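Thanks for the sequence, V.! I ran Conserved domain protein right away. Repeating your input here for the record:
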Amino acid sequence: MTIIYTKKRKEQTMKRKHLVAIGVAIAILLLLYWLLVAEDMNAWLNVN
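Predicted structure:
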């Protein structure tokens, strides 16, 4: 019984780690995208 419980608990922490990793990856992608778009916007505004 205890072995099954610890195994389930390990799986939960693994899932949580995956969720955190996915969240961080999305945040980085959004930040890079925003930086690129901001650069394009500045160039576009300067041209106009």
